[in-house]
Amino acid sequence: MSSKKVATIDLGSNSFHMLISEVTIEGQIQELYRGKSKVQLRAGLTEDMRLTDEVKARALECLQNFALSIQHYQVDEVKVVGTYTLRKAKENIYDFLDEAQRILKAKVEVISGEEEARLVYVGASAVVEAQKKKALIVDIGGGSTELVIGKGQNLKSLVSLEMGCVSVQNQFFNDGLLTLANFSQAINYAYNLLDPIVAEYIQQGWDVALGSSGTIRSISDLALAHNWSDGSITWDVMEILAAELLQKRVVANVHFNGLRSDRENILAGGFCVLYALFNRLGIKKMLKSEGALREGMLYEIVNSYKQKE
User: Fold this and answer.
1) Taking a C-beta distance cutoff of 8 angstroms, is the pair 218, 259 a contact?
2) Cβ neighbours of 72 (radius 10 Å)
3) What pTM value is reported for the model?
4) How many CA atoms lie within 13 Å of 176's alpha carbon, on the beta-carbon side?
5) E strand segments, 112-153
């Protein structure tokens, strides 16, 4: 077989993503299909670490749609990983995982925060050819944020922290108000999680900071659409966005040119995480990376495929 079709699926805390690619023996990749659904798994995580029936139904409906695309493209290999919310609920949702596996005809692997961070690094660094430079990769998900410093194949530091755009939004903006007090509390929460690792990360240093996933892409798109920058995220961009969000006064008013409607009700939460990162780590400039977890999964499959030949 000269090529095979591969689906890599990321069951994230905010969105489920699927990438279908055709991979040749030489390792060339052609993207065939990209699918995404805003399932908001994290919002359906109860206090006793279970998933509500409503969110399970939404998730399984999305997976049934993914399964149709897998069938349509006659995919040979399906790789599925679950992240923060499924890590939290793992012991209580065997029925859901069984049903997900039955629909996708593939194992759902619930990965650790460290493994998630590593795969994000593989996906984000490869896409921008950051191989020659030491890169800080930041991935703000729905329930957790991964921070990795590495150069090429060599990872120097990696951590997964329990703060994400959905969880911070739900915890600090659940009254629907965009007040200075809510922003301050959310940012201070992020500071407390970051402070234990700040010294190590600053000591490591990096040549380029890259951000992957929804929050960072959204803020980059906003910066470009409003001429705040060329799409790179800087302190100036963060300060302008802070002022703009405060002016909106309530979450329901969060509409911007260049911002997708499905990001509106979680932008403030994601912004607070990124603001804390910029402040504590002294980030001057961050570029968005097109690669993330599902690309990292794909590159690992490609490498194993090449090695077998």
Assistant:
1) yes
2) 11
3) 0.91
4) 3
5) 134-140, 145-151
